[in-house]
Amino acid sequence: MYPLLTLAQEVCNKKILKSEDLHFIIADNNADFRYFESNDLYKTFSYSEYSVAKLRRYFDWQNFIDFFIFIKNIFSSFFFLIFNRPEKIFSKGGFVSLPFGISSFFLRIPFYLHETDSAMGLSNRVLSKFAKKVFTGFPVQNIEKVEKEKYFFVGNPVRPEFFKTINTKSDINNKNLNVLIFGGSQGAQALNQWARDFFDISKNKILLNQIKNTSNLNIIEKINVLIVSGKNKSDTNKILNINKNNNNNLYLKNNYLNVKEVEFLTTSFVDEIHKADIVITRAGGSVAELAAAKKCAVLVPLPTSANNHQVKNAEYFAKNNAVLYIKEKDLFESKTSILLIELFYSKEKQKNLSKKLEKFAKKNVVQDIIKYLKI
Amino acid sequence: MKRNQKDSEKTSIKLLKKNEIFIPVFASLLFLTGIITAISNVLLFNSFLQIFIILIGLIYMFLAVSLAQYKRWAYKVTIALFAVITVFNIFYLFDLISLYFQIDGLAPTSGILYLIFIALINIVLNVITVLVLIERKSLFKR
Question: B2–A76: do the CB atoms touch at under 8 Å?
Fold first, then answer.
């Protein structure tokens, strides 16, 4: 949703199109829909909701129901396009746009696709056959089996707020370490659990030993941890316990380790990213935002992601030493704890990683897309 | 497609052919007629003559999709097709009327009256369709 909104807002800001010339198709009952509703975006842009019909490549009764939903979506998208006849369709892919891609092919409406990840999912592989142009977030050679001539590496659109540099003068002497942890929707559970264990001093002796080392206290005066757990995944009792355990510990004076957990970040997401020194997250589209915000990122790719795209994304950045790449199965290993704690207490390492990740941030993505779309 | 209750607050979508509703409605109906004709004849297939009807259904679908794309040739073919259908309907109407007057007093004429009524409606609708299509000539690309 964010990349699409970035593109839409840029197109409107530059007066290339008016907001009423744009229409969004969004999946109902998901995070995109909630974001659209909660930010009053429906007042600016018109939108339609579609139930998503997925093809799960494992046995699930939902596949049978989704077959009929898919047929219904094909027809409704077909008639939607007949009645509204857009000049161009720009899609971020996914199963919600599959019926529109197919219908646009029959109605000869130019269809453009943007692939965020380094590996294409099933829906995007199908959609790419119908697309006039395919924009990619990663270099094209990373995407396998493609018709090169219609692929254009543009990067991932990022909201301009991420590029804004915050006032770093006050941060030079700031000895606080802000850690932001979020796992998105699918992958939040494992990251939440790990974070709750990792920052619980009664469980994590490695972290406790580091804190015991008084020289480290000079490097960091306070550690603030913010866990964005996702809808219905927060465990406030556990967090209260962690803070209680931590505060009762002899070595942790003055609320040294402060852990907070929230279900959602909506409008303050950009601020929280800017505030954070280290961001621990999955390896989806948010990595482009972290690159734009010049953040030190720790990526824990979701092993069950479609076509293993998150692992491939993380490997791409890790190959260039731009992120700290941790496999999910290694999360609870002591070697991972050591690596992370080393990163926490080394501003130099953080700076090094953020500098390298920053090189992947592309500022003109939206302009490039507009140029290719010829709008 | 499920629409949100806040629809009234939303801005409308810009149409390529602004305020044009006839062509989308007509193309949709033509497409539905085509698909229903084709599928029903495939499902209830019992003679090779039906292949011809299935083909007509497919041609209707193709024509509808081309009309939805505002193609000039589709516009011409549709007008020609509907003009021919109208002419056939007029001949059919004359046949029905002459049949109606040939039947003596107590014959079951209500069935024929019904067929005459249907044929009349068909002719009127076809003529309206052709006239509206001609009126919208400028929408179709050359």
Answer: no
CA atoms within 13 A on the CB side of A374: 6
Element (H, E) at A181: strand A176-182
ipTM over 0.85: no
The structural domain count of chain B equals 2
In this structure, are B29 and B81 located in the same domain? no
Interface test with B, best of A25, A85, A100, A111 (most B CBs within 10 A): A85
Whether residues B60 and B75 share a domain: the answer is no
Phi and psi (nearest 5°) for A124? -70, -30
Residue that is last in its domain, among B6, B38, B69:
B69
How many residues does the structure list for chain A? 375
Q: How, if at all, do strands A89-91 and A46-50 pair? A: unpaired
Cβ neighbors of A320 (< 8 A, separation 6 or more) are: A356, A359, A360
**Per-residue pLDDT tens listing for chain A (375 residues):** 778 888 888 888 888 888 888 888 888 766 777 777 777 777 788 888 888 887 777 788 888 888 999 999 999 999 999 998 888 999 988 888 999 999 999 999 999 999 888 888 888 889 999 999 999 888 876 566 667 788 888 988 888 888 877 654 445 556 788 889 888 777 778 888 888 888 887 777 777 777 777 666 667 778 888 888 887 777 777 777 777 777 777 666 667 788 888 887 765 788 888 888 899 999 888 888 899 989 999 999 988 887 788 898 899 899 988 999 999 888 888 888 888 888 888 888 899 999 999 988 888 888 899 999 887
In this complex, which of B13, B16, B31 lies closest to A46 when CB atoms are compared? Answer: B13
* pTM of the shown model: 0.82
Domain of B56 in residue numbering reads as 19-69
Amino acid at A364: N
Assign a CATH topology to domain A162-358: Rossmann fold (3.40.50)
Q: Whole-angstrom Cα distance, residue B71 to residue B77?
A: 10
Q: What six digits make up the tokens of A259?
A: 């852990």
Enumerate the β-bridge partners of residue A262. A228
Closest approach of A226 to chain B, Cα-based (Å): 34
B68 touches chain A (CB under 8 A): yes
Backbone angles phi, psi at A304, to 5 degrees: -95, 10
Tell whether the torsion through CA atoms of A302, A304, A310 and A312 is positive or negative.
positive
B-chain residue closest to A42, CA distance: B10
A50 at B interface, C-beta within 8 A = yes
CATH fold of the domain at A2-160+362-373: Rossmann fold (3.40.50)
Q: Comparing C-alpha atoms, which of A348, A324, A342, A332 is closest to residue A210?
A: A342
